[in-house]
Design brief:
The chain contains 11 helices and 8 strands. The protein is α+β, with helices and mostly antiparallel strands. The model has no long low-confidence stretch (mean pLDDT about 90).
Length: about 280
């Protein structure tokens, strides 16, 4: 049957696939629009399978906060090349996925993919369409959620590093929240405070410190004491509340927050960076 340019364009607008791919999809399915859409999705799934061994190390990292300021997410939507990552349409697509994740209160990546993208398809289906359109492996590489009395997000220019930070007071200003979020973006803390450092991380840092000390020729009976001192430095450099505040190194982050309000503190954060 004859396929009109209008039908081809309609399919192209919905799926983002190329004109010739849309024409072929309609021809293969006798003009049945829904079957043609499925045909293109299957093509996308095939592309995804063919590229399953490829690394999707580029992409965009976004932070979003709910309208009530009590829930925040960090999400990365990954692709293979920097060229795609900087494409305006890809950035808009990533932003739409972030919005769905936040609005649907998705707790994990599987829940995001199962959510409706629009009235017709799921997020997982939309990813398959985008794979068919772009020709690269794309996926959600990272997703975390925090809740707090007040959550503030920060996206570093370039969309490669994003942070959300939670605070114990809803009255904390956006400026103060942004200052702490920018601190986390710049200084890459591994935990909120000492209590947030896992035992495995602590053991690893202690072992590294011991080997460094032995390499310096220190007596064995001094190794443990010096190693514990190095752990104190690790906490200061690598936990958010104990880090020197980048805008005033006479204060750590906890002291900065207390200078704003004695009861104010950060309760959680999530940070992700595309290295």
């Amino acid at each position: 049957m004859a396929i009109t340019a209008q039908e081809v364009n309609k399919l192209r607008q919905q799926t983002g696939a190329g004109m010739m791919d849309c024409k072929k999809a309609l021809e293969e399915n006798n003009g049945d629009f829904e079957k043609a859409v499925d045909f293109l999705r299957k093509k996308g799934a095939k592309v995804a399978a063919n590229r399953s061994d490829r690394d999707a190390k580029e992409g965009v990292v976004l932070a979003k906060v709910s309208a009530d300021g009590k829930r925040g997410i960090v999400i990365s939507v990954n692709c293979e090349t920097d060229f795609v990552a900087k494409n305006e349409d890809f950035i808009k697509f990533a932003d739409s996925i972030a919005t769905i994740a936040l609005d649907k209160k998705a707790e994990n990546i599987d829940a995001i993919k199962a959510a409706p993208y629009n009235n017709d398809i799921t997020v997982a289906d939309k990813f398959m369409e985008q794979v068919g359109k772009i020709g690269e492996k794309i996926d959600i590489g990272y997703y975390e959620v925090i809740t707090a009395e007040k959550v503030v997000g920060y996206i570093h220019p370039g969309n490669r590093v994003s942070v959300v930070v939670g605070f114990n007071q809803a009255s904390v200003s956006d400026e103060v929240g942004r200052n702490v979020a920018m601190q986390a973006a710049a200084m890459a803390p591994v935990a909120l405070d000492k209590e947030g450092v896992t035992q495995d991380m602590l053991d690893r840092e202690l072992e590294i410190a011991r080997e460094q000390i032995r390499a310096e020729g220190k007596p064995e009976d001094m190794v443990e004491k010096i190693a514990q001192g190095k752990i104190g430095k690790f906490y200061k450099e690598s936990t958010l509340l104990n880090q020197e505040y980048i805008k005033d190194n006479k204060l750590n982050v906890a002291q900065y927050l207390q200078s704003v309000d004695k009861g104010l503190t950060a309760t959680a954060f999530k940070r992700f960076s595309l290295s």
